[in-house]
From TrEMBL:
Record CDD domains: EGF_CA, LamG
Subcellular location: Membrane
Membrane topology term: Single-pass type I membrane protein
Keywords: Cell adhesion, Disulfide bond, EGF-like domain, Glycoprotein, Membrane, Repeat, Signal, Transmembrane, Transmembrane helix
Protein name (record): Contactin-associated protein-like 2
Residue intervals of the Fibrinogen C-terminal domain: 1-50
Length: 736
């Protein structure tokens, strides 16, 4: 399998945080290693772990003068060096807890304790300090326990003290050994903690050059690939052809080029005559998006791969020359007298070494360092309305106009609502005019040409997910400065109702969804889109359903005022049913609430400048318990209750209260106890039946169809049509 070169490469395949195999030097000698890739909003962290336990005790009547702690990583030192050398920044946490155990023997004197880093070098500085400074973090910040010393532990107190911090001089990392010296006195004790190595960024992955004239090129020293060549890079162009790179000998040569908009060619001659391998793509390669090229040649065979297309392989002749003898410089972006390449080349690695295109481009006319336009290739990974933002070295997703966050705008932002808690989002904040406000927030992005906004909405989009076990309740309510309102309710029966009152009719227009109980503790998604008179509702993974407002109804939502979650606290007259449903209020979870361009829950939980809009009654606890699973297989039938419930059961839960506040752990314990009791009862029943079997004749009330059934349970199910329903209901309770 082809492993990516770094965590950065996995992020740009749209991958989320997880463990991955990376191969820092391509197909070089180092080989792949498994690391944890942590994709944050704007950074990618690569983490390599070791086997030393946190708070490892040292000393306490040790006879040895020195105690040595060895750290074994799940990677070789060379593999870790490959990661640290290409990273923009690396760090490793280190901590020394001490009781009568001195650390660095500051301000002067030979250190009692030191650590060994890369290339087996000893280092006499500690976390939070830097090379050449024999101090701990408190010595740098001048707040040590005893100001005469530069480490807390050097005060030699009988109470526990601690010196800790980050080691961030990446040329010295990782920590491979710690030697502890002052633990041989009576009463001396120490505890050592060392975190994993964490590195951020990959300078090689984004090392790029833009070729802006066809005669421009970069030159490097001769490529040393006599018996094996491994070349990989990314390119991006709108030109129909061009040479990526070439290196010549007397007759030998090696060359990679874009031959046509759909063809990449790898050609070489080792003395047996020219060989050419061509990969033909079904799609245009000059589409101004990044494409990856991987070319390899050894004494046995040569291969070429473009993107994820099938690899083209050609065997080498069994006899003849095998050494590639080159003498000219390596030309990147052009070749002698041939048409050059117009566009970008990035992350060019030759036999495991990344060529520094950026540095060379800075001093070369017709070539610019770096490359723009990453969003054309990677913008598709910004989901749920997130906007791709160009950066010098890559891209990021701006989730500010969405109800999501995370590196790809796919992480739900949600909260748990206790009974009586509510949130109000005011569309009109103090100090802004209504017109400014509506033009900024409420007008859907579908209306960019609206220059003179009025204060009425002809269309709105509303989406959220929720879970609750209590009904009736008000999930969401949008009030106005007029009598207009919109509400999403759970009726006493547990069914969902959408209620519109836009004027023109005596009663509000209701959309009732009667085909399932929504107050079953499971996450449900609601998407409502209105355009004029037409309303489209999509619930969970059911097909969308269309409705139409009555002909008498107004089609404008006049002067929207505020959005309420959990409860409606509004002055003036309130619809009678909503008033009834308002007590005691919603209990459960709401997630990823979005009304047009507004995300009220996110504004409350991630306050930037929106705090003047948001008012909260009670404590808002962030939770993903209302989030819908991202992937649920299509339902086999619209009425099948099993699919959604069982799929939802596996959804990761972050440990905060759900439903009506029942702790999930106690629910599980209760379930286990119920199973044990049920098992005991079953055993008793079988024992009694066994005893009675020998007492002559007996009457039975066995279910009809029992003879053909495989088990007692099956017989009951054959006979009792309500049995499935009973199981279903108990199953729902079990999942709450």
């Amino acid at each position: 399998a082809i492993h990516e070169l770094s965590c950065e490469a996995y992020k740009h395949l749209g991958k989320t945080s997880n463990s991955y195999w990376i191969d820092p030097d391509g197909s070089g000698a180092l080989g792949p290693l498994r690391v944890y890739c942590n994709m944050t909003e704007d950074k990618v962290w690569t983490t390599v772990y070791h086997d030393l336990q946190m708070q490892t005790s040292v000393g306490g009547n040790s006879l040895e003068k020195l105690s040595v702690l060895q750290l074994n990583y799940n990677a070789t030192m060379d593999q870790i060096s490959a990661i640290t050398s290409s990273a923009e920044y690396c760090e490793q946490f280190i901590s020394y807890s001490c009781k009568m155990s001195r650390l660095l023997n500051t301000p002067e004197g030979n250190p009692y304790t030191w650590w060994v880093g890369k290339a087996n070098e000893k280092h006499y500085y500690w976390g939070g300090s830097g090379p050449g400074i024999q101090k701990c973090a408190c010595g740098i910040e001048r707040n040590c326990t005893d100001p005469k010393y530069y480490c807390n532990c050097d005060a030699d107190y009988k109470q526990w003290r601690k010196d800790s911090g980050m080691l961030s001089y990446k040329e010295h990392l990782p920590v491979s050994q710690i030697v502890v010296g002052d633990v041989d006195r009576p009463g001396s004790e120490a505890k050592i903690s060392v975190g994993p190595v964490r590195c951020q960024g990959d300078r090689n992955y984004w090392n790029a050059a833009s070729f802006i004239t066809s005669s421009s090129y970069l030159h490097f020293s001769t490529f040393q690939g006599e018996t094996s060549a491994d070349i990989s890079f990314y390119f991006k162009t709108s030109a129909s052809d061009g040479v990526f790179l070439e290196n010549l000998g007397n007759t030998d040569f090696i060359k990679l080029e874009l031959k046509s908009p759909k063809e990449v060619s790898f050609s070489f001659d080792v003395g047996n005559g020219p060989v050419e391998i061509i990969v033909r793509s079904p799609n245009q390669l000059n589409d101004d998006q990044w494409h990856r090229v991987n070319a390899e040649r050894n004494v046995k065979q040569a291969s070429l791969q473009v993107d994820q297309l099938p690899m083209e392989v050609q065997k080498a002749p069994t006899e003849g020359h095998t050494r590639l003898e080159l003498y000219s410089q390596l030309y990147v972006g052009a070749a002698g007298g041939q048409r050059g390449f117009l566009g970008c080349i990035r992350s060019l690695r030759m036999n495991g070494v990344t060529l520094d295109l950026e540095e060379r481009a800075k001093v070369t006319p017709g070539v610019k360092p770096g490359c723009s336009g990453h969003c054309t290739s990677y913008g598709m990974y910004c989901a749920n309305g997130g906007k791709c933002v160009e950066k010098y070295n890559g891209y990021s997703c701006d989730c500010s106009k969405t109800a999501y966050d995370g590196p790809f705008c796919i992480k739900d932002v949600g909260a748990f609502f206790e009974e009586g808690m509510w949130l109000r989002y005011n569309f009109h904040s103090p100090g802004t005019s209504m017109k400014d406000l509506v033009s900024r927030t409420l007008l859907s992005s579908a209306d960019p040409e609206a220059t003179e906004p009025n204060l009425n909405l002809n269309k709105e989009e509303l989406s959220f997910s929720f879970s609750t076990t209590k009904s009736p309740c008000v999930l969401l309510y949008i009030s106005s400065y007029t009598q207009d309102f919109m509400a999403v309710l759970v009726k006493p029966s547990g069914n969902l109702q959408i209620r519109y009152n836009l004027g023109g009719t005596r009663e509000p227009y209701n959309i009732d969804v009667d085909h399932r109980n929504m107050a079953n503790g499971q996450p449900h998604t609601v998407n409502i889109t209105r355009n004029g008179r037409d309303v489209v509702l999509q619930l969970d993974h059911y097909p969308p359903t269309s409705y139409s407002l009555p002909t008498a109804s107004d089609i404008q939502f006049n002067s929207p005022k505020a959005l309420f979650l959990g409860k409606v606290i509004e002055i003036g007259k309130i619809d009678q049913d909503i008033f009834k449903y308002n007590t005691p209020g919603f209990t459960g979870c709401l997630s990823r609430v979005q009304f047009n361009q507004i995300a009220p829950l996110k504004a409350a939980l991630r306050p930037i400048n929106a705090s003047s809009h948001v008012h909260i009654q009670g404590e808002l606890v962030e939770s993903n318990c209302g989030a819908s699973p991202l992937t649920i297989p299509p339902m086999s039938a619209a009425t099948d209750p099993w699919h959604l419930d069982s799929a939802s059961a596996d959804f990761p839960y972050n440990g905060q209260a759900i439903g009506d506040g029942v702790n999930r752990n106690s629910a599980i314990i209760g379930g286990v106890i119920a199973v044990v009791i049920f098992t005991i009862l079953c055993t008793l029943v079988f024992l009694i039946r066994y005893m009675f079997r020998h007492k002559g004749t007996y009457h039975t009330n066995e279910a009809k169809g029992a003879e053909s059934a495989e088990s007692a349970d099956a017989a009951i199910m054959n006979n009792d049509p309500n049995f499935t329903e009973t199981i279903d209901e108990s199953k729902k309770e079990w999942l709450i």
